[in-house]
Amino acid sequence: MKYTYTIALVAVIAACSSRPADHELATSIARGLAAACPLGSDTADEAARNDCAGNLTELAVLRDAMREPFLWGGQAAGAGYRLDTSTNKFNARVWRRMYLSTYMFGTDFAVEQIADTTVLHVPVTFRGTMPIGAYPYPFWHSAKKWDSYNYATTVHFIIQNGEVVGALRSADQDTTRPKTAHAWDGLWQWEQGGTQMPYVSLYDYLLSKDNPYTAHLDESYRALEARMRQNNCQACHAPDNQGMSAQLEFFVYPNQALAGRHDIITQLVKNEMPPRGNVLGLTPGITDDAERGLLTGLARDFEAAGDQALAWEGDNKVEFKYPDPQTPQ
Ligand code: HEC
After folding, report:
1. Which domain holds residue 64?
2. At which of 181, 201, 221 does a domain end?
3. pLDDT category, 59, cuts 50, 70, 90?
4. Is residue 280 predicted with pLDDT exceeding 80?
5. Ligand 1 pocket: which of 87, 232, 237 to mutate (most atoms within 8 A of CB)
6. Whole-angstrom Cα distance, residue 126 to residue 51?
7. Is the four-CA dihedral 89, 256, 149, 153 of positive or negative sign?
8. Are residues 165 and 212 in the same domain?
């Protein structure tokens, strides 16, 4: 009898203490970040970036708490810490390794409680002078985006009930920071010395050297990507977000496409993509059933290969289901 009572009491205490636990989680993450990617003066140093990427990939306190898929974007001024719009969905490993590692972290962090949300504010310095293939994609395709990466003073991590749901580059910007000028030639991809660029967007960069599934994952992505291109999917599912998705998934790069590997199938089965009903005044979906079947088959291969490669790394988490995306009217 006494035993049952004790268990009930423990459960109540656990429920009440969720915020202190999130506060503790935030503190551990902040310390982990500063140790993984300490502030250095050289923002061009690719070796330091790669060390940082390796450390962040394995940073257990962050890895184990991240929601899959993870939301990332630029904070809109005056919009608080909302993540439901103007964000991208990423596989958590992809985000830690190739996006978060473009920053170095200061030790002067702060933790703030806003209703049921814990916000961790981490001071950052952007690695702004690396070779262009070291960035996940040409951020400078948009002046606003390149400013946001270079000038953001802080990355805000949004934590709820023990889970890091997403992160935002601060609307607070220091425009006195240096910024390298780049011209964008309109290409998302290019080649340099026989390597596809950006090199950080390739599975070779994402996965361990001895992951036995890398080549198969790459083949299944290439096959799907080529077929999606014939169906114009990439016109909207690219970083410039021509379809104005609220929570964009983009398919033009191998690593970034992993976040969409389950959703692609759902969308093809429902046959709601491309959303022509709104955009072109035509019936949405793919009208040729054989074509849709073929594309769905390739999407299933890619999903299975992605699951396998990520599971080998211990990074194939069960996906959180966001509400169905709404096509903007
Ligand atoms: C004309 C632009 C456009 C085209 C072309 C297009 N999409 Fe979309 N797609 C959208 C929009 C808009 C959404 C809704 C997302 C939202 O509101 O957040 C979406 C949502 C999705 C989603 C849900 C995941 C997400 O991004 O939240 C998937 C998966 C998807 N599309 C796959 C495809 C595939 C596969 C094709 C090609 C057969 C395709 N799309 C073609 C605009 C487009």
Report:
1. 18-201
2. 201
3. very high
4. no
5. 237
6. 15
7. positive
8. no
Task: Say yes or no to pLDDT of 289 above 70.
Answer: yes
∠ Cα 262 271 136 (to 5°):
45
- Looking at the structure, tell me whether residues 186 and 289 fall in a common domain: no
Residues 165 and 47 in one domain: yes
The token pair at 297 is 């088959």
- Do 173 and 66 belong together in one domain? yes
**Band (244; pLDDT cuts 50, 70, 90):** confident
Q: Is the CB of 260 under 6 A from ligand 1?
A: yes
Q: Residue 241: CB partners within 8 Å, gap ≥ 6? A: 248, 250
CB distance 91 to 187 below 8 Å:
no
Q: Residue for token digits 């949405």?
A: 284
pLDDT confidence of 202, banded at 50, 70, 90? Answer: very high
CB 274 near ligand 1, within 6 Å: yes
The tens digit of pLDDT for each residue in 8-57 reads 444 444 444 457 899 999 999 999 999 999 998 899 999 999 999 999 99
Alpha-carbon 223 to chain mean position: 23
Same domain, 233 and 190: no
Ligand 1 in reach of 225 Cβ (< 6 A): no
Residue 176 Cβ inside 6 Å of ligand 1? The answer reads no
Residue 142 C-alpha from the chain's centroid: 18
- Check if 305 has its Cβ closer than 6 Å to any atom of ligand 1: no
Q: Does pLDDT of 242 surpass 70?
A: yes
Instruction: Report whether residue 86 contacts ligand 1, using a CB cutoff of 6 Å.
Output: no
The preferred substitution site among 91, 229, 267, 289 for testing ligand 1, maximizing ligand atoms within 8 Å of CB, is: 267
Tokens, residue 49: 């970036």
Of 328, 327, 329, nearest to 270 by C-alpha is 327
Coil, strand or helix: which one is 131?
Answer: coil
Measure 233 CA to ligand 1 centroid, in angstroms. 7
